[in-house]
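Thread title: Can someone regenerate the structure for this chain?

I was given the following input by a collaborator and told the matching structure tokens would be attached. They weren't. Posting the sequence so someone can regenerate them.
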Amino acid sequence: MEKFPTTHALIVEDDKASADVLIDLLEQLKVHHTTLFDSRDVVSVMQQLGSIDVVFLDLQMPEVNGYEVLSTIQDMPEFASVPVVAYTSHNSEMANAREAGFHSFLGKPLRGKQFAEQLAKILANQPVWAVR
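Best answer:
Regenerated them for you:
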């Protein structure tokens, strides 16, 4: 299994159980990660981190939804090249996510056996559009 020890992922997810699944998969691949449960804090957290290789972003969150967060990230020139992945159980949102400018789409629940390959493609700037 491929490992990514120099990679840092930001997870923006309001559901702890969903975040835990993604965290477990990232840890198996030796990916460093930061988890953010309040999407309103994304700008300050990203600026504090400075370097992020990929963002996993839930679409349905209270306060600020994933589409609004994506728009905010897109307006930050220092993070313009960071792939933002829609990470959601709402597979019907795939077309909307593509139109909004997400790099990739991973439907929940994630498939552990495919995740390493999907992450490798995303980090190589190859979009992945996959539902459960």
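The chain has five helices and six strands.
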